[in-house]
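Friendly challenge for the regulars: who can give me the structure tokens for this chain first? No prize, just bragging rights.
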Amino acid sequence: PLQSTDWNSSVTLPKFDPALGALNEVNIDCGLNLSEGIYAENLNNNSIKYMANISGGFLLELPGSEKLSIIINRSSNGSLEGFDGNMDYSGPSGINASVSNPSEHANINVTAIEDFVAGEPGENITLPASVFVSSLLSAPGSTSIGISMKAGVDVCVRYSYDPTVNGQGVS
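First reply, four minutes later:
Bragging rights claimed.
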């Protein structure tokens, strides 16, 4: 789910059941969902321009030395009229905008597939996951400006395998 950045967590995925057959390939796909809120109030008499730069990333640590990452790099800017007398982050001198960014995806074919084979039915693998974001906001003179960030991730594992064959055909 979307939650305020920065965070460390983990992702639990089901391991492959070897009773299904011989595992050939493990693919992990991640989708990063990012929501940002920018708020600013120009306290100057004259109009101004503001800028917000956001950078960071998502990291999923896999067994061994493999990692799956998604880089975050966003920027936005705008103009605000002179102070309208209301410190409300709205009107001509303010902004309070929320933006939901399209999901960004990354995937990896895991080389250490043996770590994804279950030793017993229903076994899972837990992988460390983290999101870290930093922001740089700039506006001239007396300006109140801020940003809020939320991020969430969807992780999917796909197993490619040769099915076990019994006397009745493919199972």
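The chain is about 0% helix and 70% strand. The radius of gyration is 23 Å. Your move, everyone else.
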